[in-house]
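I would love for you to help me understand the pair of lines that follows before we discuss the fold together.
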Amino acid sequence: MAKAGRALQIDSDARYRFERGVDVAFLEMGAKHAIAMILTICGGEASNLSVMGKPPQWQRSITLRAARIATLGGVSLPDEKVQSILTKLGFTCEAQADGWVVSPPSWRADIDGEADVIEEVLRIHGYDHIPTTPLPKLATISKPAMNMAQKRVHLAKRLLAGRGMLELCTWSFLPEAQAVAFGGGNPKLKLLNPINAELDMMRPSLLPNLLEAAKKNAFRGFKTNSLFEVGLQFSDITPEGQRMAATAIRSGFVIDQSYKNGLFTQSTRPVDAFDAKADALAVIAALGLGKCDITGGAPAWYHPGRSGALTLGGRIILGYFGEIHPGLLGAFGLESPVVGFELFLDAIPLPRAKSKAKPALKVSDFQAVERDFAFVVDAKISAADVSKALSGADKLLITGIEIFDVYAGKGLEDGKKSVAVKVTLQAGDRTLSEADITTVSSAIVASAAKGFGGVLRQ
């Protein structure tokens, strides 16, 4: 009755009554009640009652153990009270050595086993008489549900959301043409039964789906986008061919805010590769990796001169960042610039165990000094090489290195460029003298010559 009512979506009084069970032994008694009502109201004379067929066999016996009431119900009751409760509910009880053989009445079709009988006893006795017993503690401190490798997915998501990005959850497949453009196209990753004729290939990168989302937003008038996704990307059908990646893009404009000399300034500029680099490094820092190397060699879907790779010692590739190649943006209907990054979370080493206490903050009370240097170097020398070499000139006094200008062109030889660097000097125990600054400056020039063949620009 209940199944048919749900299938036909019919609600009626008959369904309400019959789907909850009908007393199969009440037919003859119900007929006698109806006859008596008719004779009382209408008068007349009734014929003899004729019964056709036999009622279904509803009688059944259930063994109820007295000890089971305490173990399952949590309450110990005298045998007399148990038998009294069941008898008043219409049950018949036949005493045995360790309990009773109980027969439920015809109108209780829901009683099927010993647990149902115990529930009836507890219901009448009162659930409030069941004592509250807390579960035993297996350990004083609960073990974490997730390990660090699993937590890094949530850490990356929270970090990117905190940087003003919106999270997407896109399909794990895309058109084959896009897969080929982003380093995929493995025929073994082609779907046999795709949900859409165009979405027929497992994604080799999360970037195409993010660019598609930016395209839809641009068509609706939102050309400034900050989107990210953390999910799997695929290079082959083996488990090792699956990578958990944190990928994000920015398009349009960003707002730069600064406070200097008591003035608050705000300016708008197009996004650039350094925005993607800052996002990627922020995720790496949040996952516990102190530093990494920045080299060239980004894939073909990045701009060749405005991109880079994040590595450990130049051997382990952690990810890529940079401006998306303008040739690819046309296929998505997007205008340049669009920048993004890809980080392979499984490639980032887990942080070492740390003490719970944070180290004390060390702040110098003495004035910092800034000095600017401009070095002429080979065009192939990267900014990372310059910073690394100069930072080793004096590890105690050099507290910051900032590259603020790169120039190549008129006044320089072919294959050369000029790199301008701001170096911050500060001591923790004294004010720097002119002699100290001169000594460190000489060491910086010497480190430039030795580290990357740089000479001071005249």
In short: The mean pLDDT is 89. Residues 1-55 form one domain. The chain has four domains: 1-55, 57-131, 148-347, 369-456.
